[in-house]
Amino acid sequence: MLKLGNLILNVPFVQAPLSGYSDYAMRRLALDFGAPLTFSGVMLAKSASHPKVLRKPAFRPHEDEHPVGAQILGAEPATMAKAARALQDIGYDIIDLNFACPAPKVLRRQRGGYLLNEPETVMQIYDRVREAVTCPVTMKLRTGFDSSPQSYDNFHRIVAETSERNIDALTIHGRTVMQKFTGEADWDTLAEIKNRFSKTTIIGSGDLFDPQTIVHRLETANIDGVLIARGAVGNPWIYEGLRAALKGEPAPPRPSLAEQAEVIVKHFKGICQLHEPTRAVKYFRKFIVQYCRLHPRRRQVHRALIAANDEIQFLAAMEEWYGNEMLSEVS
Ligand SMILES: Cc1cc2nc3c(=O)[nH]c(=O)nc-3n(C[C@H](O)[C@H](O)[C@H](O)COP(=O)(O)O)c2cc1C
């Protein structure tokens, strides 16, 4: 169980916000495979508070995907509050505040992970957003801006002050902003934080790629939940594996080529609903790299699928490499 304010999930994991990946097509698949909650990729608060932008289908949650969270990025408390309210109004069930993003263009504008240097601003944003919405409010942090003692103090201060104000959950990626994705995630710090702030819901993130490791992390860090991020890209099966592992059941069998094909084509068709077909084929390439890892001839399959320039070529390559029996059924 994972409690995020009044949102209670029956398993302790959620699908991460993944910019450029966690659109409706990916979120829908995650739900089908057992993720109890998913997030949109991060949205800029300035855009997300604009009615014209909010009318775009890509920004809106779909009726069949609740609960679903929105994550926002920004440095101005009033804009963040306005965006949070607008996103709640169009149907998002939870608002997550991003103080973790390490992208240079985000840091240059003093947003995302940069704000770990400014605990006062973080708290002002939190207070304004908390007042503006009735749904759960959570925060995504990293373990500091960099490895300096000052950074660690700032991080601790944010955790302590949000805990005092009963934040609904803190999701912490066990790396500093400056580390980006290098090195290994520091799960000792996550365990230490949970130990110190035992009443606060802590969700851990970092290097969670397979169900066994994930269950081990949950147990050893004694945290409340985990965030599944890169481990779910091209691998929605991770969620059913994780559900089995949490119950102590054997791992489900590796998906057959026919099952893989069914999921890949379903995902691809979902993307075709969101983008015009030629763009969809290009956009989908980043998922193909990951999906192919399950295929015994992964290099050849990868080469064939990314060579496709339109929907027909893509489906033809799928038929060639995954067999054609079921492809006609899903189309
Ligand atoms: C391509 C990509 C996009 C991401 N987008 C977001 C995002 O929009 N918001 C966010 O809070 N974290 C984002 N993250 C970070 C993940 O949510 C997660 O914290 C991080 O990848 C560590 O977990 P992992 O090592 O298990 O992947 C992103 C990560 C990747 C690789």
Fold blueprint:
Elements: E1 2-4, E2 7-9, E3 13-15, H1 24-32, E4 38-39, E5 43-44, H2 45-48, H3 51-54, E6 68-73, H4 77-89, E7 94-99, H5 104-108, H6 119-132, E8 137-142, H7 149-164, E9 169-173, H8 187-196, E10 202-205, H9 211-221, E11 225-228, H10 237-246, H11 257-274, H12 277-291, H13 298-306, H14 311-322, H15 327-330
Parallel strand pairs: 3-11, 4-6, 5-6, 6-7, 7-8, 8-9, 9-10, 10-11
Antiparallel strand pairs: 1-2
The chain binds flavin mononucleotide.
Flavin mononucleotide is lined by residues 16-21, 41-42, 71, 98, 100, 140, 173, 205-208, 227, 229-231.
In brief:
The protein has 331 residues and is α/β, with parallel strands linked by helices.
Structure description:
This protein has 331 residues and is α/β, with parallel strands linked by helices. The chain folds into two domains: 2-246, Aldolase class I (TIM Barrel, Alpha-Beta Barrel), CATH 3.20.20.70; 257-330, no CATH class. Helix content is 47%, strand content 13%. It is built from 15 helices and eleven strands. The chain has helices at 24-32, 45-48, 51-54, 77-89, 104-108, 119-132, 149-164, 187-196, 211-221, 237-246, 257-274, 277-291, 298-306, 311-322, 327-330; strands at 2-4, 7-9, 13-15, 38-39, 43-44, 68-73, 94-99, 137-142, 169-173, 202-205, 225-228. Strands 3, 4, 5, 6, 7, 8, 9, 10 and 11 form a nine-stranded parallel sheet that branches. Helix 1 packs antiparallel against helix 11. It starts with a strand and ends with a helix. The relative contact order is 0.11. The model is unreliable at 325-331 (pLDDT under 50). The structure holds flavin mononucleotide. Flavin mononucleotide (FMN) binds at residues 16-21, 41-42, 71, 98, 100, 140, 173, 205-208, 227, 229-231. Residues 16-21, 41-42, 71, 98, 100, 140, 173, 205-208, 227, 229-231 line the site of flavin mononucleotide (FMN).
